[in-house]
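Running log. JK asked me to keep both predictions on one page so they can be read side by side. First protein, sequence followed by its tokens:
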Amino acid sequence: MPIRPMFLAAPLLLAGVAGLTLAAQSDAAPFPAPPAEAAASGDQVAVLAGGCFWGIEGLFEHVRGVKSVTAGYAGGSKADATYGAVSTERTGHAEAVRIVYDPRQVSYGTLLKVFFSVGHDPTQVNRQFPDSGPSYRSAIFAQTPQQRQVAAAYIAALNGAKVYPRPVATRIETGAFYPAESYHQDFLRRNPDDSYIRRYDLPKLTALKKTWPTLWRG
């Protein structure tokens, strides 16, 4: 099992991502609805990066309409798509997840709503709470021109509504997705008592269930 770096840098760290995002919402405007988008047919794919992929994968596994989630790497080359290489922070990869979803049940914009509101802190640059480096950056790997358009519009809406105390730092990128090693897959579900999972990732599930109950799938 890999060892995650653990250093406390931000005073909000102990509150966890759920506390930060929900506090930001209560102090500012209500969280904006996702932008309108054209209807899609057939299963669709979203690729998102928001810090350690364990928690992001585990979160989206509980979103209604999501059919599968795979942890992996995006933004770099296939040759460097290994945990050892990505951990050097020199590959260009971000820890990411590939989400296969049914657009009849959940829209791309709704996935982004979950991502921005309870998935991570989108104002942090090249880090996500205890994890530091560009592989932990906040990024959206748009799979279609429409996804790029929806993502850009949502980021603009979040900044315009001043939902967070700082501007959204999420980057909209391109790049292939490569699955991570088998021991990373379903890590949260298989290791619910892991100290990292308990401290940083389980609060995201609690926040999803509380904030967007109609999206929760047990």
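And the second, directly underneath as requested:
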Amino acid sequence: MSLPTLRDDLVRVYEPKAPAPSQRIKTLHAAKEAGLHVYVAMAPTYPECDEQDLDVTLEAAAQLDPITIFHEPINIRAENVERIKAQGEACGVSLKTEVFASTTNWQDYARGQLKAVYQLARDRKLTKRLHLWPDKTLGSASSLRSVKDPVRYAAWLQQRWNKASAWPR
């Protein structure tokens, strides 16, 4: 089940027809209590999800003792940005839609989210359960030119792309 954030205000904007995060958590706990294997997708995380938000969401996912925690930053198509802006205004939520203004902006945001979640998972000793889903465009030549150590970063991306999710024990 997806759990991009615990913030109801953001879910109302980005996923207006989806259940609230509190309902998703209850469902996941019920599934766990029923003996089902639980997988949590912290996906898609939104530009408004700062490190504190990501940490709180990761902690909520970890409490479920999932087999795997997936993570993917939102990758939005241009035609959806206007819909999301309008929904944000209707809900009174200020959005960081500048993330979607250019490929460079989005790639900077996506790298930051992936790095933050990876570091938070490492701090919580969850990296074996964490499965990041970096977009393939983050490995493009133009994207790699904007990182500090492109060779090392490309290798890191390759490891993420090749990681297989764990099977239940």
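Observation for JK regarding the second prediction: The mean pLDDT is 94.
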